[in-house]
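Posting for a labmate who doesn't have an account.
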Amino acid sequence: MKKISEWRYILLDTSFIVDYLSDPTRFASNPVKKENIELAKSIMELLSSEKRKIKPQFYITSITIGELKRLETESVAKKIIETLSAGDVTFLPYGKTEAEVLNKVVFAWKKEKQPKVTQKQLEDDCRNSGCANFRNWISDDMKILSCVKQLCQQKRLDVILTSDERTFLPIAELMELPCLVLKKENFPTDLFGELSNN
């Protein structure tokens, strides 16, 4: 995977955007969530640095726009563009082409004799951790990822950023997409423990 300083094409998953927009002080009693929020903010700060040679191209899917119900605004898309002023924002639709990509992936997945992960495993994991509407989550995650599968094949996707390691990451790995979960150990740090561009 490329270094942060080399990232140009970046898909922001719903969970990453929610963390980025959250106030870390509200999560003092949940240190893991607080660290994710702070990490999301640090990543966006690095990506918006004036010293950065590459201007980021952010991708956000139409599925994500529908999931961002907490942004109480008339136009979620406009709010996202204002919030992500560090780079260009492209909204990816979910249409017939993306649905076909998803169907091919699911068909290949079901044909595998020893799949890395099964849909039942994803559902069981969600159910055991108390997720509500887990089938919708899994379906939406698959739709989001099918929107960027072609971009990856065209070398127009460097990384996908997510906070969801329960369903989103396994599906991204299954689809062989470059995905990083918001965990400090997944990102380079300098001698002071701060996020590094390398």
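Reply:
Got it, the structure tokens are right above this. Strands lie at 9-12, 57-61, 88-92, 159-162, 179-181.
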